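Fold these two proteins, one after the other.
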Amino acid sequence: CLGGTREYLLSAVHEWVQSPTPPLFWLNGLAGTGKTTIAHSVAEYYDERGQLGASFFFSRDQQDRRDTRQVISTIAYQLGKAYPEVEGLIATAIKNHNPLHSNSQTQLRHLIIEPLSILPHPSSLPTVIVIDALDE
């Protein structure tokens, strides 16, 4: 976002990140109202602070970014790169369960939820995952 714009909404996102619940922030609105710009700004902000675990920006113009089957594996890959202690757990999940050929619920459980729940020392800072344009 341009400096000085969308400050109220960005402030609401930052407050949500610091609160323990709910774990999901849903931003919705009409097409062309700046949701993607806000999502990019949020991802950039938390990436600069080492709190961006992953991001996925759907796009109807790019084949690999409009396929919902790519979301969980992409997020898991990015989480593994952001948190090296998770990378091995994700690799083990792939080896033991081969979730890449499973439905999205199974992928989510084996590639993201279980590896993150096993972490020995969870970070005191929240991890942010940004997913944009689910309707694409």
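Now the second one:
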Amino acid sequence: QPKRKTAFGSVGRRIPYRILHVISQDGESLGNMHRAEALRLMDEHGLKLVLLREDVEPPVYRLMTGQQIHEEQLKRAEKKKASPKPGVVQKEVSFSSAIAKNDFETKTKQIAQWIEKRHHVKVTIRQAK
């Protein structure tokens, strides 16, 4: 059984599959080819082979520059950061800058209760007209 990939861009020259589907750095398909042929292409162009999808047959690899790999890692990190974690509830409260004292105290008590329950709280302050 092939080894699981630990991180994006960590493939290098160790490719556990014999036949690969290769995509050029421009995004066009180069078709299915043998591992040795893909490594030769990689060396000729000074690029790296990166595993995109291993759940298909044959697995899909893409030729990328170091800069492209770095940008892809940043995109994936942003996407992961933006998605809410399972089991974490996010609450949102909106304040007006002309809020009355009683309303303000009620909302702050509510926020304190949510924080005690370990909810993520987002507070928005709107400017009154």
